[in-house]
Specification:
Layout lengths: L10 H12 L9 H4 L4 H12 L12 H9 L1 H19 L15 H16 L6 E5 L5 H10 L2 E6 L2 H13 L6 E5 L12 E7 L8 H11 E14 L8 H14 L7 H10 L3 E7 L11 H4 L8 H8 L3 H16 L7 H20 L3 E10 L3
Parallel strand pairs: 1-2, 1-4, 2-3, 4-5
Antiparallel strand pairs: 5-7, 6-7
């Protein structure tokens, strides 16, 4: 694989585009209300910039050159993906953009929080530690982890809109003294060396064009003796890139989730150790014998829901729920209420959901490969 050329950062440009596209929609209630407040011209620009990497580039015709083009524009690809998808995520899933394990009788929100608590527990996060959240989204996990552990957390994100929402939520919950959110590219962080006691990433570093590259940056900003914990999205050893069906699943996940280059488990294990970490623990949590699989909210079996509240939440994410929502969005587009391209984004997320379920059922993919690494003293 060729060395990665990092993208130039232009925070002024990104802030101007954020203002043009999102306006004041970061102050809106999450989901559909925020989605309807976008500028149609800027929305089209984001749609064109993102989908140029995917339109007419199906798994059957994908080449190494196509994948390299995505890796070369990893930051732009990820930034525009979240410009388009954030409101849909918050509508369908909530403020914590990740999967989780499910215990018997455990509700969806409770399971999401437990997954975050487990990572904090495995890392030994505690009161007073200075912690970096790499790829923090709208700050849902950071808010939960600071309440659980007492750590002070800095969230790093390359999407201005998500930072605005994260700051708004932190202030609303009275956590502004515990949390901060900053703009940056996790492949080239602006932090000085050795400033954080711990760093975590929850299903975020999959957006990196090189895992060794992002893990090396994390290693650089950690203090000696500091700990890094990550839930990584990876293809498993069962994945065979020569199998057309396997490639369709992988590409569907990548397109619908803004991923330039997803790799297999052995490459991630090699990357974290090449970055300098002593690997203390690693396992695929998707292989645990749980009451319900991690992908059940997307699979449509409402019999697995543990409460009426879960049925309401999860129904929106099932195929039927997505079909209804997508057709509703189409109606909003046709009447000019929603900006054009919103349905295209929603459809892409729907394809990804189906591929995630297929990847989970066929043991080709995991969203929760846990690695705990320590920077030597």
């Amino acid at each position: 694989m060729a060395p990665i050329a990092l993208e130039d950062q232009d925070h002024v440009r990104d802030a101007a585009f954020n203002k043009a596209l999102h306006g004041k929609s970061a102050d809106e209630k999450a989901g559909l209300r925020a989605m309807l407040k976008k500028d149609p011209v800027a929305q089209k620009a984001a749609i064109d910039e993102y989908f140029k990497h995917w339109d007419n580039k199906a798994a059957g015709v994908e080449t190494a050159e196509i994948r390299e083009a995505r890796r070369a524009e990893y930051a732009t690809l990820t930034r525009h993906y979240y410009n388009l998808a954030t409101d849909l995520y918050e509508y369908g899933w909530g403020a914590c953009f990740h999967f989780c394990r499910f215990a018997y009788g455990e509700g969806f929100r409770q399971a999401i929080a437990r997954h975050e608590h487990y990572l904090a527990h495995m890392m030994g996060l505690r009161d007073g530690m200075k912690v970096l959240d790499v790829g923090c989204g709208v700050g849902g996990p950071a808010r939960e982890i600071t309440k659980f552990s007492g750590a002070k957390i800095v969230g790093l994100n390359n999407n201005d809109y998500q930072i605005e929402r994260a700051l708004r939520y932190a202030a609303k919950e009275g956590l502004a003294q515990q949390l901060d959110f900053t703009k940056g590219d996790f492949m080239q962080m602006s932090f000085p060396p050795e400033v954080f006691d711990a760093v975590y990433a929850i299903e975020a570093t999959v957006h990196a064009p090189s895992l060794e590259g992002v893990y090396s940056e994390i290693f650089r900003v950690l203090k000696p003796g500091g700990v890094f914990g990550v839930y990584e999205w990876l293809m498993t050893d069962h994945y065979n890139n020569e199998d057309a069906h396997h490639r369709e699943i992988r590409l569907g996940i990548e397109q619908g989730d803004g991923i330039s280059n997803m790799v297999k488990i052995p490459e991630a294990l090699e990357a974290i150790q090449k970055a300098g970490f002593v690997l203390e623990h690693h396992e695929d949590l998707a292989d645990r014998e749980d009451a319900r699989p991690w992908y059940y909210p997307l699979d449509g079996d409402l019999r697995m829901a543990s409460s009426l509240g879960d049925i309401y939440s999860i129904a929106r994410m099932t195929r039927i729920g997505r079909f209804i929502a997508h057709n509703f969005i189409s109606g909003l587009e046709l009447t000019g209420i929603a900006p054009k391209g919103t349905r295209k984004t929603a459809n892409s997320l729907g394809v990804a959901a189906d591929c995630l379920v297929a990847g989970g059922k066929e043991k080709l993919f995991t969203p929760m490969y846990l690695m705990i690494g320590r920077k030597p003293i």
